[in-house]
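Q: What does the assembly look like in three dimensions?
Context provided by user:
Components: two
Sequences:
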Amino acid sequence: MARSRITPEREAELYEAVLDLLRTAGYEGLTMDAVAARTRSSKATLYRQWGSKPELVARALRHNKPVSIAEIDTGSLRGDFHAMVDRMDDCQMEKDSALMRGLAHAIHENPDLHQALRDLLIDPEMTGLDTLVQRAVDRGELPADNPALKYVPHMLVGAFIARPLIEDRSVDRDFISSYLDAVVLPALGI
Amino acid sequence: MARSRITPEREAELYEAVLDLLRTAGYEGLTMDAVAARTRSSKATLYRQWGSKPELVARALRHNKPVSIAEIDTGSLRGDFHAMVDRMDDCQMEKDSALMRGLAHAIHENPDLHQALRDLLIDPEMTGLDTLVQRAVDRGELPADNPALKYVPHMLVGAFIARPLIEDRSVDRDFISSYLDAVVLPALGI
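A: Here is the predicted structure of the complete assembly.
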C-alpha cells in the first residue's frame, strides 16, 4: 500500500466522503465511481491506494476511531469503562448506529467486507477491550474464572444494537453509562 | 379482518411461504404478487385478509411464536429463563437470526413495518418478559428497585444480535443458556 503518497488531510477528507456516502446510499449503493467523483480522484488512484471497496470502507470506519481502547488506563475497570463512554459523543453515536444498521446486513452478503472489518475494526476493538479486562484481573478486581469475562463484548455491542429495536431510540452516553453500572459491572461482580 | 374464512392449515401454509420468501428475497424483495403466486391465492384475497404487506409479514412472524412467554411459570426466575431456552430450537434460532438481520434494516426504512412488528411481536414479547420478572419481584427473588430490571430485554435481544457479529456464529441453546447464567442472572443479583 502506498498510502504515504497522499497527505493525511486528503486521506481524512476521502474517508469522510466514504462515510457520508455509506450513510446515504448504503454499502451496496456506494460505488467507487461515486467516491471518485465526490473526492475529485481517479478510480485508478482509489484502487491503487486501497486495493478494493471493502478495504476502503473498513479503513474509513477505522479512521473514525483513532484512539485505541487499550490506551485507557484509569486504575479501575469501572473507571476505564466510564472513560470509554466519556470519549463518546452523542451525535457521533447516532451516526455510528445508523452506519452499523446498514452494515449488519451488508456484512452478511459480502464476506470480503466482513473480513476487512474484522481485521481492521472488530478484532482491534475486541483486543483493546480484552486488555482493559485483563488488567482488572491482574489487579485482583475480578477473578480470572468469572464466567461473564468472555461476554463483555456481547454485553456492550448488544446494548448498542438492542436499544433502537426495543426503545426506538439510539444510544447516548447516559444510556451506556447507566447500562454499564446496572448490567456490565454487576455481571462481573464489581 | 375475516381471517376465519380460511382454515388454520391454509393460514399456516401461507405464513410459512411468507417467511420463506422473506429469508430468500428480503423484505423489499417480497411482493404480494410473489406471495399470491407461491400460495395460489389472489392478491385481492391477501389484501382482504391482511390489509397490507407489513401486517401480513408481522402476522407470519408472530405465527412462528405461538406460545406466550408469560405462560412459563416454574416458580423461579432462573427456572423460567431456562424453560424459555428449552422451548427454543437451534435450527429455528439460526433461521430467526437470518430473518432478524434482514428485518433490522427494513424496519428502519419502513415505519409501517416497524409499527406492525411492534404491535404484534415486540410489545407482546416485552410484556411476557415483564410478567416473568414481575413475578420474581413479587416472590421476593429480587428487589423492585434493582437497576438491571429494565434492561432484561436489552440483555437478551443484545445477545442474539451481538454473537454473529463478534463470533461469526449464530446463537444456539448452549450459548443462550450460558449467557443467562453468566450475565443476565448475576446482573439481577440472582
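Follow-up: The mean pLDDT of chain B is 88.
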